[in-house]
Amino acid sequence: MISRAPLPPPPPPQEQGPWPDRAARLAERAQVMVELSRRGLSFGRLVALWLTGALAVVGWAAVGTAIQSFEGGGLGVMTGVVALGLAAVLLIPAAIAVGFWLSRGRVIRERLDAWARFAPEPVTDIRLGAHRRSVVWLLPSVLLCLVGVWVTGRAIVEAGSGGVTGRESATLGETAYALGLGVTLLVTGLLGLVPSVRHQCWSGRLMSSVPVRRGGGAHR
After folding, report:
1. CA distance 137 to 144
2. What is the DSSP-derived secondary structure letter of residue 199?
3. Is residue 129 within 8 Å of 207, Cβ to Cβ?
4. Counting beta carbons within 10 angstroms of the beta carbon of residue 73, is it exposed (0 to 12), middle (13 to 18) or buried (19 or more)?
5. Is the pLDDT of residue 122 over 90?
6. For 179-192, what is the mean pLDDT?
7. What pLDDT does residue 217 have?
8. Residue 55 three-state SS
């Protein structure tokens, strides 16, 4: 699902390239940029982001459990310590994974920019836009953002004015979990939303000045 193949390298100096002529150089440039575009918005990267978000959600559940256990006192303190340790085991790797995820995305973006500057001619292959992939990233990311905002807002309201009718005010543990859940959903959604929108804007500017041509094979 997640490609382990190395990314296409950045462009070499033009005078040191292996191309026999300018047409071959531009063809290689277009091919590399389409591949980088595909890798940057791959389904594997999106799933990796979702799995990392799910890991963080479980970690926040452990934080909520730990706080509730500490509030109960007695033997619950031991349960709280265990839950807190579990939260650290889950949340710290999730944060590290997000860092690696962002770093790889930054590398892809830098190489796309480098290849775009490699020659003054725009890329005319419509696959560079990765429109279908962008939609796959965009729609669930928007949904996650909306749900995250709703959950966060509801947690804040319930923490300040009590829960639903007939309930007492939300406990500190419940509030911590709800806030963690909402923020995690919102951040996960934004991390998926931003690359999709940014790529569409970037590729649109790059391709807007010339008629596009369809590359060989199906749009990927």
Report:
1. 11
2. H
3. yes
4. exposed
5. no
6. 96
7. 40
8. helix
Give tens-digit pLDDT for 69-111: 888 777 778 988 999 999 999 999 999 999 999 999 999 999 9
Give the phi and the psi of residue 213 in degrees, each rounded to 5: -120, 150
Q: Is 146 left (phi over 0), alpha (psi -120 to 50) or beta?
A: alpha
Question: From CA 110, how far away is CA 19, in angstroms rounded?
Answer: 22
Q: What angle do CA 21, 25, 27 make, to 5 degrees?
A: 115
Amino acid identity, residue 5? A
The Cα 47–Cα 53 span in angstroms is 10
Tokens 């094979």 identify what position? 217
Distance CA 53, CA 34 (A): 28
∠ CA 218-19-211 to the nearest 5 degrees?
45
Using CA atoms, how far apart are residues 189 and 13, in angstroms rounded to an integer? 38
7: left (phi over 0), alpha (psi -120 to 50) or beta: beta
Region 42-69: mean pLDDT is 95
Query: What number of residues does the chain have?
Result: 220
Q: Could you tell me the two tokens for 201?
A: 């804007």
Instruction: Count other C-beta atoms under 10 Å from residue 78's C-beta.
Output: 10
- Residues with Cβ within 8 Å of 99's Cβ and at least 6 positions away in sequence, in order, are none
Question: Is the Cβ–Cβ distance between 108 and 35 less than 8 Å?
Answer: no
d(CA 191, CA 95): 13
